[in-house]
Predict the structure.
Amino acid sequence: MTAHPRSPGVTVRAAAKVNLYLGVGRPRSDGYHPLATVYQTLSLHDDVTAATSGRWSVELVSEDGIDRDSFPTGEDNIVVRAGRLLAAHHRDARAASLTVRKSIPIAGGLAGGSADAAATLVALDRLWDLQTSDADLLSIGGQLGSDVPFALVGGTALGGGRGELVTPMLDQATRWWVVVPARSGLSTPVVYRHFDQLSPDAPEEVHVSEDLLSALEHPDNRVLAATLHNDLAAPAIDLRPELGELIEAGERAGALRGIISGSGPTVLFLCADRGSADRVRTSLVEAGQPRVLVALGPVSGTHVVEYA
Ligand code: ATP
């Protein structure tokens, strides 16, 4: 990554997520899909730096492979919406400049925007010493997006409602993942619409499988691999058939299981251990994949990494 001078302020780290289980139901009367999910944070992360300023602004610092054109540079960036919402909650008229150091692919199904929003809430809370309660941060996060509360909490957690009701879970094992971002993103609403077309009989209520919940108590990644599940995989692969081919290639290279992350198009491979993850990565790079990362999970939720 290119070296950039750090702006003064508070820097907060927020992790990408994978859904170990994603059950999706029929749309509710408010238009949202009911979800039953188990989230896990990955060591792949963005950092958000907040500094007081006369006006709201956002700047992107990114490594190669990030689709910079998809990053909104104005008021529609979720970090500005997060900052404004927190300031309004405290009836605070201040504004801030926000710098996002992005490694999480945009529109990749890894909830990078949600992670940035969660990091912004914590960064501004610390910068301005607002002492926002955890309950209020979670509720403001839930207003910004379904995945924001989990980004605040991190680790491994059960998600209900439209994803915003988060219950932390014990997962003491280290899970090794190979992450393969796609060249261009997939729109989450488009994938959900395709899910509705493919699954007109989706249930009203969804539940996480008992098999996955008990697999989480087992340190062996082989046990967990057999229980991973994503209801959005079929619509995502139908929209992008090459994702199915990629999953087969990674599994042939030794991964325990390849899955679509959330609404895709990022593909994640759960591997037995670090050595296996490195071998799968090498094999996919040799097969022509331009960006293949190794990440572990779970890691902690949003946390301060620098006061300057
Ligand atoms: P999810 O899995 O929650 O749908 P995602 O990983 O698929 O998330 P994001 O990277 O969060 O997708 O981005 C979704 C859309 O939000 C993008 O099309 C992008 O233009 C917009 N967006 C707004 N702010 C941000 C941000 N800070 N980072 C990334 N995308 C942002």
In short: The chain is about 30% helix and 30% strand. The first strand starts at residue 10 and ends at 24. The radius of gyration is 19 Å.
